[in-house]
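#structure-requests
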Amino acid sequence: MIPGVSAAGYDAARHRAAFLDRSYRGRIVVSGTERASYLQGLLTNDIVALKAGQGCYTAYLTAQGRMIADLFAYELGDVMLLTMSGGVTATVMARLDQFIFSEDVQLGDVSGTFAQIAIVGPAAAAAAASIVAGISDATLRGMPEHGNARAEWTGGAAIITRITDAGEGGFDLFVEHGQAAALKTALVAAGVIELDEATAEAVRIESGIPVFGRDMDAETIPLEAGIEPRAISFTKGCYVGQEVIIRVLHRGHGRVARKLVGLTLAGETAPQAGAPVRAGDREIGAVTSSTFSPALNRGIALAYVHRDFLEPGTMVMVGDQGATVTALPFVGAQG
């Protein structure tokens, strides 16, 4: 294991349970009786189909089909909780607010109100069940992706959601911000190891999960990042940016100028974000995220490359290192 990636933390995340503080993410609560129908016209997934306890992955686009944010929407029964990259929370709040006219919809930025702690790994359900009251290990293991429930723990109320975006399956626990330290102490006492940022990144990148602000930004079309199977409903009604998405899919047969792919490096060194990807003398793309992969014992990266070089097995260069275009994920989740 090279410096920066913890062997113990990585092993716990892949084979037992580990936790990471994700309080840096943004959190918005949407309330009011028309919250679902209001969001239905703005977000890419089928929000009105969500029942209490359900959720989905979705995106918010401009009229030009480019991303404002990717989000997770959780219908809690009385309100809807949206989580997103912390860097776009204010933008999302402002854009959502400008489209409220006579609808019974209220918005609240609760990023500073709640802490968000993820528990991931094959034993995440057992670890979470040992912390919260009223939800069994079996119930948590049976919770579908994006499922959610209210819970209690010794520090007060909590919300628990089923997640996969950390790279390993698990759960986000939302508690009052002031209770974050107590929750971490309880997790450590339960034998759950805390993941440092570098190790958490290794798990995420191995699993091929793009993150907004690094692998997606305001210039990205969802089809370029490959998130459309998870984030876009092709049976719902209109949403902002839909015309562009449909045009690319139907008239362009889904072909975009570039796409996000995996790169497996020839050696252990991980390239820097922004490093150019070349094929011969031609620059064909750039790295967005990279890490050392403990599972592959190689440097790996996520990168956008020109559509002529997407085929797995294609040989390219990143700096002075050879690299191979690799289908994502590099490594499948163990849990």
